[in-house]
From TrEMBL:
Protein name per UniProt: Gram-positive cocci surface proteins LPxTG domain-containing protein
Keyword Secreted: yes
Residues covered by region (Disordered): 36-206, 908-946
Domain Gram-positive cocci surface proteins LPxTG: from-to ranges: 1001-1032
NCBIfam families given in the database record: LPXTG_anchor (TIGR01167)
Keywords attached to this entry: Cell wall, Membrane, Peptidoglycan-anchor, Secreted, Signal, Transmembrane, Transmembrane helix
UniProt superkingdom: Bacteria
Residue ranges with Polar residues bias: 55-67, 119-142
Keyword Transmembrane: yes
Transmembrane segments annotated in the record for this chain: 1010-1027
Species of origin: Levilactobacillus acidifarinae DSM 19394 = JCM 15949
Bias (Pro residues): 908-917
Biased composition (Low complexity): 36-54, 73-103, 147-163, 171-198
């Protein structure tokens, strides 16, 4: 068929498909149903058993329930076809193509007899099943009174080391049709077209080739329109399934246009089942072309079996699916254990954004074998699984690993699912390695091998055959126990087996029926994040070897410096025997690496194994060595002539620094302290250059160098001498305060002549800058040039002036009525603080001393509030304020007066500006100014009926006495010289007299001023003083 014909045909099919899909969707909406393909049943939370988490795991209530209990809960909710679930309708549909199921005895069927088993020690491959039947997805069976077994009776386990040639050495015991985790779908069962002869021949050739490297995704620009992409496939079975998925016939070419124009909203379903049986594939090569499917498609679904042997599986290249939008992967093989870590790492890179379900299960879940996926392999896939369950898919999800050998699901401890989800880990097959002591008729205890999401021990229903020839499976009694694991206490589930039957020298116990598995729900993960509508289904069959009673002991080597575990030795031996292991050799190895022994609690003559596991710890720490280091920073001054020859010996000085540190003998890391200058200084002093007759140095002095540290570089300075043409006079201006040279004046002249240079002008400039002259040895009349170089020095220093400062902290008390008007004059007091200091007139920097209180006190005395007739102050006394310093803020207090039982509401008096105290040195109030009238409440003769006097207004002329001028913490009047206490007393007395003589005038809103009375009092006091002097 030509490519153009295929393109036209595809377009016609697309329109037909779209029309049919539209009609179907319309019908579904009209009937009120919703078709949901490839989704997961929302887990129904049903609580039946509560298991406490171990002490070393996340503390949360973990709920478990049997499959029977879950089935009852599921029966009340709508069932959606899904991974690891199946509706009865699908079961019936699958039975049309599945092989005839074999009969398996139920739990109460006494005719069930354990099959014969191979001789102990025989290495066998997995028992041959009835064929790779593509049975429907597992049925979440409803609970029944007598559960029907979905597990075979015990047979000899497959030895994973057996050769592939032994594959048919053993046949499986009687059991039901394997209940396999196959895709649940609403589509009818179909048959994959057989591969063509050419495809088969090509596939056989490719299968013999070396495994391909990672498949390179083709660039669509490199694919021609007429290229038949089917040539890219190596596996004929896969090619046939892809053709069928693309609605092509056997032998049809696959063109790029076919891929690009596949149904926009469809999921490309690749299914390798034929006539109800899986057809295994050995290569995914060719699937990389699916990268060009429409972006809006639902993704790719692949149902297949991987190879027929461990060697097949180990050689599969999984990279062709990289970068492809995936929806559902249902891959089955009994040889998951042969998949390499690198292959699993490739799978973890698959796109997960659109993935709904993942099933990596055994071909026949009920076939006992030990070549399935291990816990280690699951841990590699765990991040991939977590991304699937945390993607944005809104439909429920299932990830299934049934029929493998996974016993620990704690790699998912940080899982936080986005929607209802389930991880299925039932029918795990675990081959124990440690032996337990057992004689027929004994009662033994065994431990649940299963660990959940939080690492907790999982309790599921355990059955076993008793050694009584009845053929009955009995349920083991569970109980919790505390054990030591890796040096820590842990709670686990144990089971009591009473007279269990041996099968080929081993005890066999565990999940014999589908209903024996358990559902575990978790309120939150190990990070405390919620895990709503998530559950783990788990169960396992254990093959336990017997022999002499053995026990374990662990020796853990801990690095106390880092807290890390260096290594752990796991010792195993018969109970009562003494281990030959000694810690001395291992400790010696660590001490050679720089460690030091801290403690070792392992017995020096070896541990004697007991029935209980034992744990020992050897603590080591990093050895530390003390280090010392020193460094010298050198200053060198070269004295040379202009031609570079030496004029004078070099001058050398140095500063020495030392530091202490430590070296970690394990890591080699060094930690150093700070450098210390053993010379007690961090500078090189100034150095005068030697005077050479007839020569002039370009630097008469090499200046001092400050700030020398251990990180400073060595310093080199060169002083150059040139021959003088005339005699020289050098005048150096030196700052004695800092020791710095301010200026150097070089004079030249003929010998015998006098220089006209004078220092006065330069000195005057420095005096203007704040310097003071200390000395000047330059002649005032000028210096005479002589045959030798003459040097003079003018020394100056910074002028320092004395400065002072003062600050006043003021206390003000306002006396007001309730309406805010003035009730009595403000009271003001203050404390004055001064300080002295100096100012460097060159730098302008001032240095201050401490503040001093010139009043000799640091508090404001308590002040009694003036009494006003008919009014009550809210503070009869303003408390003293102590601890006043120059840093204290001004203090303002308001005392409010309220009228005592007045009948007539007081009329708001006119607002009178408060009297402002005037500082003598800065008056801002005219003492001679006329004061405003002041109305003072005055007791009246009448009462208001409750004993309180009714006040009547009286008008008083303003007094002419001037206001007192407050000083430092001093009050008004003649008490100014007696301090704050006298001022307070005087103020109180004046206020009291005013209160006794004043009359309140509420009807006129006027007040009599208290200053008139103060004036009278002042005149009286002056007269008394004059009389006293006259008498004297």
């Amino acid at each position: 068929m030509m490519q153009q014909d295929v393109t036209a045909n595809n377009k016609r099919k697309w329109w037909i498909t779209s029309s049919l899909a539209t009609a179907v969707l319309t019908g579904m909406v009209l009937t009120g149903t919703t078709a949901q393909a490839e989704t997961t049943t929302t887990p129904v939370e049903t609580t039946s058993q509560s298991t406490s988490t171990p002490a070393n795991s996340k503390q949360a209530t973990i709920t478990t329930r049997t499959v029977g209990e879950q089935a009852k809960a599921d029966a009340t909710a709508p069932v959606t076809p899904t991974a690891d679930t199946q509706t009865s309708e699908q079961t019936t549909q699958a039975e049309d193509t599945a092989a005839t199921p074999e009969t398996v005895p139920s739990a109460d069927d006494t005719s069930a007899v354990a099959p014969e088993t191979p001789t102990a020690g025989t290495e066998t491959q997995p028992a041959t099943d009835t064929g790779n039947q593509a049975s429907p997805t597992e049925t979440e069976q409803p609970a029944t009174e007598k559960p029907t077994s979905t597990m075979p009776q015990p047979s000899t386990p497959t030895n994973p080391t057996a050769t592939e040639s032994d594959e048919d050495a053993t046949t499986e015991s009687t059991g039901t049709t394997p209940v396999v985790e196959a895709p649940a779908t609403n589509e009818p069962t179909t048959t994959t077209p057989k591969a063509t002869q050419a495809d088969t021949k090509k596939g056989l050739s490719a299968a013999k080739a070396v495994p391909a490297a990672l498949a390179a995704t083709p660039n669509s620009d490199e694919i021609s329109d007429d290229e038949d992409l089917s040539d890219r496939f190596d596996d004929p079975v896969l090619l046939a399934a892809v053709r069928k998925a693309l609605n092509l016939k056997d032998g049809d070419a696959i063109y790029l246009d076919t891929i690009k124009n596949f149904g926009l909203w469809s999921s490309l379903r690749i299914d390798t089942t034929a006539n109800g049986n899986y057809q295994p594939i050995s290569s995914f090569k060719g699937l990389e072309i699916l990268k060009y499917l429409p972006e809006k498609g639902q993704g790719v679904t692949i149902f297949t079996q991987l190879g027929t042997s461990g060697e097949d599986v180990k050689n599969i290249d999984f990279s062709p699916l990289l970068g492809i939008k995936l929806n559902w992967l249902d891959w089955k093989t009994d040889f998951w254990g042969s998949v390499t870590d690198n292959q699993l790492e490739t799978i973890t890179q698959y796109e997960t954004d659109a993935m709904q379900n993942l099933e990596f299960t055994a071909t026949n879940i009920n076939k006992i074998h030990f070549t399935g996926m291990t816990t280690h392999q699951f841990e590699i896939l765990a991040p991939f699984v977590q991304k699937i369950l945390e993607n944005s898919t809104t439909a429920s999800q299932t990830v299934a690993f049934s029929g493998n050998s996974i016993t620990d699901f704690s790699a998912l401890n940080t899982l936080s699912p986005n929607t209802s989800s389930r991880v299925v880990g039932r029918n795990q097959y675990y081959q124990a390695t440690d032996k337990i002591a057992y004689q027929p008729g004994d009662t033994v205890e065994v431990t649940s091998p299963m660990k959940g999401i939080l690492g907790e021990s999982i309790k599921y229903q355990v059955r076993y055959y008793q050694n009584d020839d009845s053929g009955d499976l009995v349920i083991a009694e569970p109980h919790e126990a505390t054990i030591m694991e890796n040096g820590q206490e842990k709670t686990v589930w144990k089971y009591t087996l009473v007279n269990p039957k041996l099968h080929n020298g081993q005890l066999v116990y565990g999940q014999f029926y589908y209903d024996d598995a358990v559902y575990v729900t978790y309120p939150e993960n190990s990070l405390g994040q919620p895990m709503p509508n998530f559950e783990l289904m788990a169960g396992a069959i254990v093959y336990q070897p017997i022999g002499e009673a053995t026990s374990t002991a662990t020796v853990t080597y801990v690095d106390d410096t880092t807290g890390a575990t260096l290594t752990t030795e796991n010792l195993t031996g018969d109970v009562g025997a003494t281990s030959a292991y000694r810690t001395a050799t291992t400790i010696k190895g660590y001490t050679d690496l720089g460690y030091e022994l801290v403690t070792d609690d392992y017995p020096g003559d070896g541990v004697t194994f007991t029935s209980a596991a034992q744990a020992f710890t050897v603590h080591l720490k990093h050895g530390i060595t003390t280090l010392n280091n020193s460094k010298r920073v050198t200053q060198t001054i070269h004295y040379v002539y202009a031609d570079g020859t030496t004029a004078a010996p070099d001058y050398t000085a140095w500063l020495t620094f030392t530091r202490a540190g430590t070296r970690d003998q394990v890591t080699g890391e060094e930690i150093w302290g700070e450098w210390q200058n053993i010379d007690g200084q961090g500078r090189f002093a100034a150095k005068n250059s030697p005077v050479l007759t007839g020569y002039l140095a370009d630097q008469a002095e090499v200046a001092a160098i400050d700030g020398i540290t251990a990180t400073s570089d060595d310093l080199t300075t060169t002083v150059t001498y040139t021959a003088r043409e005339a005699q020289n006079i050098l005048i150096t201006y030196v700052d004695d305060t800092t020791g710095q040279t301010l200026h150097t004046e070089a004079l030249k002249g003929d010998a015998g002549t006098v220089s006209d240079y004078r220092t006065a002008a330069t000195i005057q400039d420095y005096l203007k800058q704040g310097y003071e002259l200390v000395s000047d040895d330059y002649p005032a009349t000028g210096a005479e040039f002589t045959a030798d170089v003459q040097t003079f020095t003018v020394r100056l220093k910074h002028r320092v002036t004395t400065v002072g400062n003062s600050k006043r902290v003021t206390q003000t008390i306002h006396y007001v009525y309730a309406n805010g008007t003035t009730a009595a004059p403000d009271y003001t007091a203050w404390l004055t603080f001064t300080r002295s200091g100096t100012r460097d007139e060159v730098t302008g920097v001032a240095t201050w001393g401490e503040w001093q209180n010139i009043d000799g006190q640091s508090s404001f005395a308590a002040k009694t509030s003036p009494a006003i007739a008919g009014y009550t102050p809210d503070q009869t006394m303003v408390a003293a304020i102590n601890g006043v310093t120059a840093a204290s803020a001004d203090v303002t207090t308001t005392v409010t007066y309220t009228q005592k039982g007045a009948v007539v509401p007081p009329v708001t008096p006119p607002v009178t500006p408060p009297v402002k105290p005037v500082e003598p040195e800065n008056p801002d109030v005219d003492p001679g100014a006329t004061k405003p009238d002041v109305v003072t409440p005055k007791p009246g003769p009448a009462t208001n009926g409750n004993g309180a006097a009714i006040v009547t207004p009286a008008r008083t002329r303003p007094a002419q006495a001037s206001l007192a001028q407050p000083g430092s913490a001093q009050a008004v009047g003649t008490a100014a010289k007696r301090g704050t206490a006298a001022a307070a007393a005087l103020t109180t007395t004046a206020a009291s007299q005013t209160d006794q003589q004043a009359t309140t005038l509420p009807q006129t809103n006027e007040r009599a001023t208290p200053w008139a009375w103060l004036g009278v009092l002042g005149v009286t006091l002056l007269g008394w003083v004059g009389l006293r002097r006259k008498k004297d």
